[in-house]
Every structure is written in C-alpha cells, then in structure tokens.
Amino acid sequence: MENKMKDGKKEFITVWVRDPQIQKEDSWHPFVDYEICVHTNSMCFTKKTSCVRRRYKEFAWLRQRLQDNAVLISLPEIPPKITFLSTSNAKVLEQRRQGLQEFLEKVLQSNILLSDSRLHLFLQTQLCTTEIEACVSGLTDYTVSDAVHRHATSSQRFPVEEV
Which residues have CB under 8 Å from 133's CB, separation 6+? Predict the structure, then answer.
C-alpha cells in the first residue's frame, strides 16, 4: 500500500508471512504457525517494525472480526481449512502461506480496516485472541498502543524491503 505523506515521501505498509513452523499441542494435533513481519512508515501504526507468530485459526478469527466490524466491505478470503494437515506436504504449506500473505496485503489496503484495533494487535503483539478482545473492549489495564509497545517482538532477521 502506498500513499503520499505530508513531507512528500510515499507511505508504505509491507507485510511478510513466512517461516511456517510445525508446532505440536499434543501428539495428535500438530499445527503450523507463521511469522508475520510488518515494516511501515504509516501514521496508522505506532510501531514501525514488528514480527509475531500466528496460526491459521487466528487468521480465521481476525477475518471474522474484521468482517463483523466492516459489514459493507467484502473482505478477501483466506485459504480453506485443511482438515487433515499433512505437515510433510511443503507445496500445501507454501500455498497456504501465500494465501495468508495475500489476505493481509489486501486488508492493509483498506483505510477502514486499518482503523480496527484488532488488526494492529494481531499484527504487532503476541496477545492471544481472547486478550485482544479484552484490550479493544477496555477490559485490560493497558491500551492498544501500550499493548503494541509492551507485547511486540522484533526479529533480528527482519527482511530487507523489496523494491
């Protein structure tokens, strides 16, 4: 996404979904999580770089919450749920990663969706979805901005911006 800023520079928001890793809740329920890295100079973001890890069901939660808040907007789809995830199928994992990245790229092009605090907490904190809901509902002792600064993580291997 690019817009002009007051100083004439182009505003940008770059997002990467990468590094799928297999996690195991128990021996029967493996899942994959993905690193989401954001690099931006947008005034919409208080933290300009961040990296967090999220799993598919959190992407599905985010899409539903964004849709609930922006009923007049048609949100992009996320890749379908894989009933029996074969963690050894690299092609399937790569297709899902690409689909999740495309979803976030399209969401970040919408000024209406950019105003949703859930999106910022999803992208820039490791708060679980329940904690995100509590924060945006004012049920925590910290604000959204506090949460982004307090709970954000940074990556030493942050990607170089591609031109």
Answer: 118
